[in-house]
Amino acid sequence: MKKHNVFIEDAITPDFIANSIAKHQTKTSIGAHDIFLGQVRADEIDGKTVSAIEYTAYEEMANLKFSEIREATFDKFDLTCMHIYHSLGTVKAGEICLFVFVSSPRRKEAMKALEYLVETIKAESPIFGKEIFEDETHQWKVNS
């Protein structure tokens, strides 16, 4: 099983996203791309507003889990390529923390694969988020 490092320090930038997508424009076997961008929300919890989330992970374990997720997804769907990136460190409200990109010869396959991937990542990845509030207090994030 080939391991990929899925982690980006801090927020995932628009330039990184654009460059990742642009690399696939010359692949003529691709008929569809589908993209998910997870963004930190400024949720209000108990009267306090989230200003950022600090993401941490056991990187080796998480990269192994992401490799398993990738392999299972390639086995289940007809995909040409797949990219998964998740932030580590502090990501402010409004910034991107998760970037998932899939390509397939067919649109419906790309769409189904992307939904499967995002749901599996949310359910199975060992990444932890500490919500930091505007008053600088914090709490551990509940997956939602």
UniProtKB/TrEMBL annotation:
One of its GO terms (molecular function) is molybdopterin synthase activity. Belongs to the MoaE family. One of its GO terms (biological process) is Mo-molybdopterin cofactor biosynthetic process. Its EC number is 2.8.1.12. Keywords: Molybdenum cofactor biosynthesis. This is Molybdopterin synthase catalytic subunit. Pathway: Cofactor biosynthesis; molybdopterin biosynthesis. Transmembrane segments: none annotated. It catalyses: 2 [molybdopterin-synthase sulfur-carrier protein]-C-terminal-Gly-aminoethanethioate + cyclic pyranopterin phosphate + H2O = molybdopterin + 2 [molybdopterin-synthase sulfur-carrier protein]-C-terminal Gly-Gly + 2 H(+). It is an enzyme of class 2 (transferase). Heterotetramer of 2 MoaD subunits and 2 MoaE subunits. Also stable as homodimer. The enzyme changes between these two forms during catalysis.
